[in-house]
Amino acid sequence: MRARILFFFAFSLFYGSFFAQQPKNDSLKTIPHGHYNTSKFKQLQEELPTPNAFRTASGAPGFAYYQQQADYVMNITLDDKNQRIYGEATVTYTNNSPDALDYLWVQLDQNIQKPNSLSKQTNGDGPAMGYQPQKYVEDFMGKPYDGGYKLDYVKDTSGKDLSYTINETMMRINLDKPIPSKGQFVFKMKWWYNVNNYMIHRGRSGYEHFDKDGNNLYIIAQFFPRMAVYNDAEGWQTLQFLGTGEFSLVFGNYDVKITTPADHIMEATGDLQNPQEVFTKDQYKRYLEAQKSYDKPTIVVTQAEAEANEKGFSEKTKTWYYKAQNVRDFAFATSRKFIYDTQAVKLGSKTVMAVSLYPKEGNPLWEQVSTKVVVHTLKSYSARTFDYPYPKAISINANQQGMEYPMICFNGGRPKEDGTWSKQTYRGTVGVITHEVGHNWFPMIINSDERQWGWMDEGLNTFVQLLAQEEYEPDFQSRGYPKDIVEYMTGDQSTLEPIMTQHDLVHNSGKNAYHKPAAGLYMLREFIMGHELFDYAFKTYANRWKFKHPSVADFFRTMEDASGMDLDWFWRGWFYTTDVNDIGIKEVNQFVLTDEPTTRVKNMAAAYGMPVDQFPKMIHLVGKTSADYKPEYESNTNPVENFQILKDYLDKNFTKEEQTNLKNMKYFYEIVFEKPGDLVMPILVDIVYTDGSKESFNFPALIWRLNENQVSKVFPSEKEIKEIIIDPKEITADVNLENNFWPKREVKDKFEEFKSKQ
Predict the structure, then answer these.
(1) What percent of the chain stands above pLDDT 90?
(2) CATH of domain 279-316+333-447
(3) Is 585 helix (H, G, I), strand (E, B) or coil?
(4) Which one is the CATH code of 67-250: 1.10.287, 3.30.70, 2.60.40, 3.30.110?
(5) Which of 28, 129, 383, 508 is 20 to 30 Å apart from 267, CA to CA?
(6) How confident is the model at residue 664, as a pLDDT?
(7) Cα separation of 223 and 331, whole Å?
């Protein structure tokens, strides 16, 4: 029995106060109050939906996973003189769900432009910064802009009118009988609407007018009534379109004919079926040549041809015919001002076309930059997720725009009138093209619900964009680095929301949905998970959910399942709260060695009524400021020579040759880390020695699991420490750098000095 007690005494000395004395509660009136689990490491089961046959606990689609399909055959006419779109569509809706559907919901996003739309009614921002004359007349002089859909009819295939109810930007089609599981329903619609001048009325599509030559440049999207999503997670997604939360859409096949003035040049979602009919003979020849040009872009429509088209204003028309398979949406751009260049890109065994269309006002910047950036983005994103599956990726130059659709995106960025551009314009152009082309993956293929969770497409895409731009150009000024989100996170809490907030309820969408999620993913990759684990898990998520509808839980669960890491603490803190990270150095204590019994040993011996000499002989660390410290301990800087018990152990277990390879620590430091911030985060610390050398340490976030306020680590060293720095590369979004140094230094000067040495 006595031997067993001695064993536990020894154990406690090595591993902490195992037998720490608990204070006695002599008063029965002092009743402790219990509490729920408030640990930062509490699991997320309460927040995430219960796994089921549709979506598994691993984050993968379940055996019963389904998604609906909506196929469109459309005939569209652009009236350039009156800036109108006329359309007819036949929609085949396939109900792959296990449920019978009593009605269908259709999105009427153009209704956001109606004079008294819900978006305008709920806008509480007060007066605009300024009003163009047209907007002033519309808003204040009784002549509002006549926007929104004008529905001519909604019919079944026999020509019978279908009952429908319009609720702002949503339309419910009332069915005579339910669509059974695995059944189909076909209906037809005819409509028209006035295309908005987006430079005046804003919006994600519309036209830009050029006063100098009288032409319009059209970027047309949300131009047809689109089926809403019905799924296992929410049923019908019927959140109204208010302008911020984007789109929740159904995959399907498209057969689309678009009639424009004969002198227009167009690009659109899908494969062009009749290039020989819509291009001139020379343009068609260049179009074919470009499909074999992998080294540089081929100009299909030259600037000279575009400038000639600008002057024509043809009264004739032509029809562009496109087919697209398995896409969630359709968009197009058309103008007589367009220059057109394209280059072939090899991705695996497939050739993809990188395409750019731009007016002469975009040159020479766009001819030099756009297609080059599209090519790079296709390669970079493909390497991190999966090879781009569509036949082309199109970049359209549209002033003050940044919007994406399957295979096509609208991007701002233009030089000055003299053809020059600033570094800011260049970086902005590269950035918006990379970002919008990248949206082909998030959410065009990995089809998350943008109306609900904007960060699932914007945040993930901004993160991959950051990595792509690092590859494109060293030191490219990207958004999404952790240090760039600090100012936002330390702002007024009344205007901050957790990332996990429905998109229309967020004050600052750019920071909340783009930058903060990207910064979080960057931290996961750089120091929480590491590149290998993160990249594998991220690619697993992308491949599991391509051409499907992932949820937030599917992303969180896949990242954990594929990496073998518990990240619930990170999702909870970074995504579900507005907590901040602040880790600092509270104090640094220096220790020396002794083999004499310390006060701690003596107190434990006394507590159990045992002689000190019955405790095992050990080597102790004694703080220089403790009661046990004696000046002669300073001479014990060579423990191998000064402590016989250590020499005996080494001689018994190691050869002389092996002993020469062992470290002989001479300095011992205890660093006490504090955490004034509410987030838990790994501790990244650099130790700089007096000889100028440096060691870096990464202590996982779990170091805070038993004490979320303060933890200590002992650092043995053969060299004396000169300096200690927390988060030297500023990659943990630490909001307070003043406590990151020992000895304490001026923050700005010290960081600049340290970074200059990296």
Answers:
(1) 80
(2) 3.30.2010.30
(3) strand
(4) 2.60.40
(5) 383
(6) 87
(7) 8
Distance CA 703, CA 712 (A): 9
Mode of pairing for the β-strands spanning 392-397 and 350-358? parallel
Q: What is the distance between the alpha carbons of residues 96 and 90, in angstroms, rounded to a whole number?
A: 19
CB atoms within 10 A of CB 745: 16
Domain boundaries, the chain: 37-63+448-577, 67-250, 279-316+333-447, 580-758
Would you give the DSSP letter of residue 153? E
Question: Does the fold of domain 279-316+333-447 match that of domain 37-63+448-577?
Answer: no
Task: For tokens 């057969």, name the residue.
Answer: 255
CA 150 to chain centre: 37
Cα–Cα dist 593/714, whole Å: 13
CA pair distance 448, 556, nearest whole angstrom = 13
Q: Are strands 683-689 and 710-717 parallel, antiparallel or unpaired?
A: unpaired
> And the tokens for 168?
């702002």
Confidence (pTM): 0.92
The number of residues in the chain equals 758
> Nearest 5 degrees, angle CA 239-CA 240-CA 241?
120
Cα–Cα separations (whole angstroms), residue 96 to 69, 105, 179, 327: 8, 16, 10, 17
pLDDT for residue 445 is more than 90: yes
Q: Which residues in 194-206 are b (16+ Cβ under 10 Å) and which e?
A: bbbbbbbbebbbb
